[in-house]
Amino acid sequence: MSTEVKLSDELAEVHHLLTTVGDYLPVDERPEMERFREAGRKWSGQFPVPDEAVVTQAQGFPGLTVTTPASRADRVLLYFYGGGYNAGEPYIYRGLAARLATAAGAVVHLLDYPRAPENRFPAALDSALAAYKSLLATVGADRIAVGGDSAGGGLTLALLLKLKAEGIALPAAVVPISPWTDMTVSAPSYTELADRDPFVSAAMLQGFAAGYLVDHDPRDPLVSPLFGDLAGLSPIHIEVGTEETMIDDSRRFHEKALAAGNSSELVVVEGAPHMLQLFAGIAPEAAESVERIGSFVRKHIG
């Protein structure tokens, strides 16, 4: 099933840029994942870092800390990058982190969690938990928000379930962006929107899942939060685009979170592809999304 969507000039440019990732792939004999990661670093030149941003090494855990003049030390956003648990890195997200820092008036920490296939489940979750505990030593949970996009969005929600299970104070808010909530990759949208998503395919995610999970059950809530007990979670704000094969992962999690009695907001951006927010310097729709996320964080962490 396919429906034609009229894109603005800016969103059309974002769609085009997402199709150019392959142009940055080096042609040599290195392993495929290493080449894909290098392409991501080169391609990330599309995401300039605002001049006012200050980027330093994070303290207490691996990663980067990003601040702008709007950042307040008592407001913290712990952010997990996307990349299917196999690719991506904090360096690529400096520009988005700076814009989130300004929008939320917060210090943004980009965790450098270990990637698959070298580091399999639960390596990323263990790293996220350790970083969160490190932040709790310096600021209260009521001053912490957690977020991330794609796999990082799924990691955000998996961390919530892990914290709840261990009796650790939950963050004041969570802001998953296009979260990967179901590693079975079985939602109808993967087929229905296959010809409209310029970047993410079911085959891509199945490959990433295999690298992260190996023989682990893809229905484990700590890798697929959709299948978890969602009662008693932090307030949630989800953003996703109409052109994403992953859209059902957001819709279904939102619906289940509401049914479990949580406060959950879902914003569906018309015409938007996966990774929209990284293009906040190009498309007004992306900048508006970042502002909504920042407003939600400010509302819940002071």
Automatic annotation (TrEMBL):
Superkingdom assignment: Bacteria
InterPro entries (alphabetical): AB_hydrolase_3 (IPR013094), AB_hydrolase_fold (IPR029058), GDXG_lipolytic_enzyme (IPR050300)
Name of the top EC class for this enzyme: hydrolase
Record domain Alpha/beta hydrolase fold-3: where: 77-276
UniProt key word Membrane: no
EC number(s) from the headed UniProt entry: 3.1.1.83
Name by which UniProt lists this protein: Monoterpene epsilon-lactone hydrolase
Lineage of source species: Bacteria, Bacillati, Actinomycetota, Actinomycetes, Kitasatosporales
Gene giving rise to this polypeptide: mlhB
